[in-house]
Design a protein that fits this description.
Main location: membrane
Helix content: over 70%
Radius of gyration: 20 Å
Number of helices: 8
InterPro entries: DctQ, TRAP_DctQ
Shape: elongated
Structural class: mainly alpha
GO cellular component, one term: plasma membrane
Family: Belongs to the TRAP transporter small permease family.
Protein name: TRAP transporter small permease protein
Amino acid sequence: MSRVISLFYRFLDLLLILLLSGMAIMVFLNVVLRYGFNSGLTVSDEMARYFFVWLTFIGAVVGFREHGHLGVESLVAMFGKRGRVICMILSNLLILGVSILFFWGTWKQLPINISMSAPVTGLSMGWVYGIGFFTGGMCALIALERLVRLVTGRVTDEEVAAFAGEHLSVEKLSERG
């Protein structure tokens, strides 16, 4: 099962690379066409914007899995293991609640988004904003899995250290600032 999960996240990494590359290529090509040939691709602005939305929300899931989001690591680092575990439980409960709310909000907004079309491509806006299902669902699953492992005592010391920011070297910490 961990191999399947690992392959899934490798696929997401590849998808992020493709979305960022596609976005950069479309914007660069459009700039060259506009300034060099006084023309342009009307679809490139719109698709680059949609790629950026998907890139951001898929990246949020990958970042959450890797403990890459902002945290109050200086506060958490002052606690012992028990205090850190309590902070992890509270944090994941909050994330679970917000993720469920985000998923539910996407569900409630879906009829409106499906009925609207993008101005240039004609693409249903349900495809653009439907990424909320993926992000809300995946973050909820990750938080739920972490909560189960925290409550059952199966969380590792490395995970607790990662939550407190101790997995980062001084060089990596300076890169984040």
